[in-house]
Amino acid sequence: MKRIISFCYVLFLVCFVSSITLVSCKSKKSIAEKPTTKTFEKAIKLVKPEEVEEVKKDRAYDIGKRLLESCNTSRFKTFNNTEATDKVRQNATREKISAICKKINQRNGRFLNINLIDISFNKKTKEHIFRYSIGYEKKLYKRELFVTINTLNQVSAISTKEVSSKPL
């Protein structure tokens, strides 16, 4: 009889503790999570290349190509006031660019060319984001270049990113 009572007592404790744990671990949904996702999707949209001014397309291509070609030649011509914002000009120093180029060249080889993938428009900042695929000698690793052009036709951001290859 004592065994049955102790068994019931242990069973009761296990059920009680597990129910408290279950109730206390209930995950709460973040209120800010859903609106931000929807807002982000609405804020940035893809646009057709025909809808973008030629000046913006040319500026993005020229700046991107000039920056990547400097990795081949080791000569970087700094951006001027009309080409890029102050922030971009301060960040695009010869030392930083040569360090980045050294890493990329070791892994990817010489830069060959860039090809436009798509153009996005950010409604909040009124900026166009140009996404290019970068062609290198070595085809093992894929990289993309992102050039952001603001309303004054200046480069407000520029970055590269390695893209993982998709499985077959």
Report on the architecture of this protein.
With 168 residues, the protein is α+β, with helices and mostly antiparallel strands. Helix content is 45%, strand content 26%. The protein is built from five helices and five strands, in the order ααβαααββββ. It has helices spanning 2-24, 33-43, 54-73, 86-91, 94-108; strands at 44-47, 111-122, 127-136, 142-149, 155-163. The chain has a five-stranded antiparallel sheet. A hairpin with a 5-residue loop joins strand 3 (127-136) and strand 4 (142-149). Helix 3 (54-73) packs across helix 5 (94-108). It is extended. The N and C termini lie far apart (66 Å). The model has no long low-confidence stretch (mean pLDDT 81).
Largest sheet: spatial strand order? 1-2-3-4-5
- The gyration radius over C-alpha positions equals 27 Å
Unreliable residue runs: none
The number of distinct β-strands equals 5
Shape: extended
Nearest-integer average pLDDT: 81
Please identify the structural class as seen in this structure: alpha+beta
* Percent in strands: 25-35%
Q: How much helical structure, as a percent, in the residues? A: 40-55%
In a few lines, what is going on in this structure?
With 168 residues, this protein is an alpha+beta fold.
Topology, please?
Blueprint: H1 2-24, H2 33-43, E1 44-47, H3 54-73, H4 86-91, H5 94-108, E2 111-122, E3 127-136, E4 142-149, E5 155-163
Antiparallel strand pairs: 1-2, 2-3, 3-4, 4-5
Helix pairs in contact: 3-5
List keywords for this structure.
168 residues, alpha+beta, 5-stranded antiparallel beta sheet, 5 helices, 26% strand, extended
